[in-house]
Amino acid sequence: MPSNAQQDFLQYINDNAGPFIERLKEAVAIRSISGDTNPDVRKEVIRMSIWMLEKLHSYGVTAEAIPLGKQIINGEATDLDLPPVIVGRIGEDAAKKTVLVYGHLDVQPANQDGWTIPDPFDLDVDTKSGKMIGRGATDDKGPVLGWINVLEAHYKLGLQLPVNMRFCFEAMEESGSEGLDDFIKVEAAKGPNGYFGNVDCVCISDNYWLNNRTPAITYGLRGIAYFNATVSGPRVDLHSGVYGGTVHEPMTDLIAIMSRLVDSQGQILFDGAYENVPSVTDEEVALYEAIDFDVSELEEFTGPVALSQDKITVLMGRMRNPSLSLHGIVGDSSGPEAQTIIPAKVTGKFSLRLVPPQTPESINAKVTKFLNEQFDTLGTRNHLDVQMVSSGLPWVENTKHWNYDAAISAIKAAYPDRKDPDLIREGGSIPVTLTFAENLPGANIVLIPMGRGDDGAHSANEKLDIENFITGSQLLGMYLYAVAAAETN
């Protein structure tokens, strides 16, 4: 049974759903697209950061905006300011646990193609369907504002937070979190005097339920190694009518080697792709069996193209096995019109999703060796250059920890009519999770999603359900109470 303080908190969240939605609308309206290097757009990203700083100040949090320097583009320093990282702290009670919260304030671009609302940055609130459509609604402004809702409720009700809280909000997550890793390393090294001092656990809400019914808790993330493979040869683009059949063509070579990376069943083909990946245990299989998931639901979104109809096979393909995806070719004659050039240089883009104990460095060596060996078999006079352009380590957390007990307890309190939460690993990557894990080794990390599986982050018509925003705010608050009550032995 919730305490009086918890009941008051829950009621406050319910009573203030309208103002909370208006605040989310205000946040979505700030076009904080970190990937756009137009100086005017970057000002909006910075404005979003300062907006969040002011919200933290409003509810008693000691917070500041820490500059991260200038942005580096293609290895060159620019005059473009990185948005500051917003850090804050509230509560210094040594008898209480300390929770660090992370979220991001930037968003993906929102081209009009596919959107059913006039402006993706004008949050469309449909009380009949219960959906709020807008860029950033679920990724990640809604979840971040869930924490602001928690702070407001306690501040306005005059309630003490049950734990000490620390905050870290960035605005470059969608563009590689430039500058954040170095900041976290430096700040963590300050020990008790830094913003991350004495942190007992970390909570991140930047992912989603597996479906639309069952809340989830995420304990693992795949890493990533992203590659560019560039084939070049001719001095300039050539006319295929004049030079076709007379020269080695870069596009032909590139397609030949890319086709050898992965087969149509998703099997990675280069040597060592699955090296040291642990065998599945009976305990792990039981976790997958318990997950509320049906392949038919996957195919409702993707179409009838699943690699298997077996639930566990599909889940492991998404969560615990490495994968390789081909993303595109730069330098080709794309577009609807017929073009007959032979490109002088083409770059193939592909990435691998990694699982422990794989590292981007070990995969880089294997991929580079394999592609060069395959290229040598072509008998071509073109040149191949393979570069790993971005990377992130995989992560798996200990779920037999009081932090996970607290998360499960909070979900049961917030969603008493739902099934027990799914314990899942995510197929995607959130690199900052590894940065916290490496620099705060004593802090257990949990990911508690707010959004549903059909929210469409990064896609047209990105949305967040009103229920998930309001009940999700209650969940985050109840998580803090559950952390405070958790037995640490």
TrEMBL record:
Domain of life from the UniProt record: Eukaryota
GO MF annotations, alphabetized: metal ion binding; peptidase activity
PROSITE patterns: ARGE_DAPE_CPG2_2
UniProt xrefs under InterPro entries: ArgE/DapE_CS, Cyt/Met_Dipeptidase, Peptidase_M20, Peptidase_M20_dimer
Ranges where the Peptidase M20 dimerisation domain occurs: 219-374
Family statement drawn from the similarity comment of this UniProt entry: Belongs to the peptidase M20A family.
Name this polypeptide is given: Peptidase M20 dimerisation domain-containing protein
Native source species: Meripilus lineatus
